[in-house]
Specification:
Elements: E1 5-9, H1 14-25, E2 29-34, H2 37-47, E3 54-58, H3 64-78, E4 83-86, H4 100-130, E5 133-138, H5 151-171, E6 176-183, E7 186-187, E8 202-203, H6 204-217, E9 221-224, H7 226-237, H8 240-247
Parallel strand pairs: 1-2, 1-4, 2-3, 4-5, 5-6, 6-9, 7-8
Length: about 260
């Protein structure tokens, strides 16, 4: 029997790379996707990964034709994956009074939302035909409440949660599962420039191990770590006046170029 196959976007660093290492350690084959394909290839070689167990596809999730072509190439070369993880994403602060930041918002939604749908697209019909498969959307605890200076990212991740929930209902009769994983603060290049406190910060490797187990468990939605899950439950019920007071003066996410 062939080894199970996982397809991961945004695999050249951070969470994506940590997930690739975790799945490889568990005996899976890897289909890894990123714009910087050469970097992933060099990393896989440096890790001593068996060349027969991984393949790299260069693609830009912002370009629909590019990421769809990568998915189709994976199916042709390695077969239909058992798990697809739409992990690629960007996080940039915006100031809506600044005209240039409207383009940043467009880029954020193209990457974090349209890119996710385009990532899943090539695999849905083959997974339906097979009657199995898992599509994983990487959201964020930032989806729960809007944070000052973080409007594009918070809005995009809230959209990830809603989109995955819709897709889960659509695909449930087919045997294809949709899982939403919402990371808290993970130590990656995306978070190291933050100018505010990051409670329950965890390493990308620890996150990957927990996400691996969540995806295998059959869960449909999970916040990692669990402490952030409790905090997000509280954030949902806190009245606006109290929430607004709590985030007043909070450091803003750095804008592009800062």
């Amino acid at each position: 029997m062939n080894q199970a196959l996982v397809y991961i976007t945004g695999a050249s660093s951070g969470i994506g790379q940590a997930l690739a290492a975790r799945y490889y350690a568990a005996g899976w084959r890897l289909a890894l996707v990123a714009r910087r394909a050469a970097e992933i290839e060099a990393w896989c070689a440096a890790q001593g990964f068996d060349p027969g167990r991984w393949a790299v596809y260069g693609a830009d999730v912002r370009q629909v034709d590019s990421i769809v072509a990568a998915g189709r190439a994976c199916i042709e070369r390695q077969g239909v994956p058992d798990v697809v993880i739409a992990n690629a994403g960007i996080s940039v602060g915006i100031d809506t009074s600044q005209y240039a930041d409207l383009e940043v918002m467009r880029q954020t939604f193209e990457t974090n939302n349209l890119g996710m749908a385009a990532t899943f697209h090539p695999f849905i019909d083959p997974m339906r035909a097979r009657g199995s498969g898992v599509l994983v959307g990487i959201a964020s605890v930032a989806a729960i409440r809007g944070l000052p200076g973080h409007g594009a990212y918070c809005a995009s991740k809230a959209a990830v949660v809603s989109y995955c929930e819709s897709l889960r209902g659509e695909l449930r009769p087919s045997g294809v599962r949709v899982v939403t994983v919402a990371p808290g603060y993970i130590d990656t290049p995306l978070t190291r420039g933050n100018r505010y406190s990051m409670p329950f910060l965890m390493s990308a490797e620890t996150f990957a191990d927990r996400a691996f187990r969540v995806i295998a468990s059959g869960a449909s939605y999970r916040v990692i770590p669990w402490q952030m899950g409790l905090l997000t439950k509280l954030m949902r019920i806190v009245p606006n006046w109290l929430f607004d007071r709590a985030v007043a003066g909070r450091g803003r996410k750095r804008r592009q170029g800062e």
